[in-house]
Amino acid sequence: LFLSEIAPTRIRGGLNILFQLNVTIGILFANLVNYGTAKIHPWGWRLSLSLAGIPALLLTLGALFVTDTPNSLIERGRLDEGKAVLKKIRGTDNVEPEFNEIVEASRIAQEVKHPFRNLLQRHNRPQLVIAVLLQVFQQFTGINAIMFYAPVLFNTLGFKTDASLYSAVITGAVNVLSTLVSVYSVDRVGRRMLLLEAGVQMFLSQVAVAVVLGIKVTDHSDDLGHGWAIMVVVMVCTFVASFAWSWGPLGWLIPSETFPLETRSAGQSVTVCINLLFTFVIAQAFLSMLCHLKYAIFAFFSAWVVVMSLFVLFFLPETKNVPIEEMTERVWKQHWFWKRFMDGDNHHIVNGKITANNGASV
């Protein structure tokens, strides 16, 4: 949310995905720490767990030096501070058009007394539905199941304990490098293209893993053999790579840039809540699913990949290079399906002024 509000339109996607890049770097470091502390008996796991306090401390200290966004300052009536911050982050004094748009958007936002209740109104339904479904779909790709339980999964495939942790480090490194692909390409090829390409790649890699495990791993044998085991690791890395440049970062980026100012904070709160809820659900259910479904768990997740790819194809609009305050006019009112929900939206912003649908200034 913070990054979407301060980013220039042309690089909003890439700048926002730097958030996800740092998440993946954190995951990689966590895997490296686990790999190192696994050799310390019997208290290595305590060291691993306690070291998580370091990034928490850094995050808290860093928050003390971060200024509010211009949108937030202006919405709270601190117009001069908002303009000063806008000039600073844009690197120019010529910010009047953008400043006026934010001022007018904040006036609309101040008319909304109950933003969470306002989220349920008809004209906010497209953004809410997409934000919620993106979080559900992100978890049903199976990524957290694979990343959380990579050591368990690789142990099941016949790797020894050290090798399984090492394999988890490999997937973490792939995650970081592939997120860089998204940083570079998201504002060039667009959100939809990345999601659709990744859908094909995730589906094929998961089906390949399911087929190999279905044929080679049975109730009487869990030894894949070296060649097949390497193939499974490669397919898992292929899956992680496609997720890292698509559903991973874009699941956060798209909701943060699509809500109007009056419901943006509330909408992002719902987004995070749904994400953590389904992260919890998948984390709790995965081991039981792995025991009962076995290789079919990858078929289960691949079926969900098909569903979410079809949703993207038909219902997710492209938001590349669209100013964040112009989403309603240029995206939602132009979409073949969602435009029907915009009928009750009687105002929009043109050249920094709110106008009614009949063109009169408000």
What does this entry look like structurally?
It is a single chain. The chain is mainly α. The chain has a domain at 115-341: MFS general substrate transporter like domains (Growth Hormone, Chain: A). It is 71% helix and 2% strand. It has 18 helices and two strands. The protein has helices at residues 2-6, 12-37, 44-50, 53-63, 70-75, 79-90, 96-110, 115-118, 125-140, 143-148, 150-156, 161-189, 191-216, 226-244, 247-258, 261-293, 296-315, 327-330; strands at residues 347-350, 353-356. The chain has a two-stranded antiparallel ribbon with strand order 1-2. A hairpin with a 2-residue loop joins strand 1 and strand 2 (353-356). It is globular, with a radius of gyration of 23 Å. Mean pLDDT is 85; it is low at 346-362. Belongs to the major facilitator superfamily. Sugar transporter (TC 2.A.1.1) family. Keywords: Membrane, Sugar transport, Symport, Transmembrane, Transmembrane helix, Transport. This is Sugar transport protein 13. Its main location: membrane. It is found in: Membrane.
Task: Please describe the structure with a list of short key phrases separated by commas or semicolons.
mainly alpha, 2% strand, Growth Hormone, Chain: A, disordered C terminus, two-stranded antiparallel sheet, 362 residues
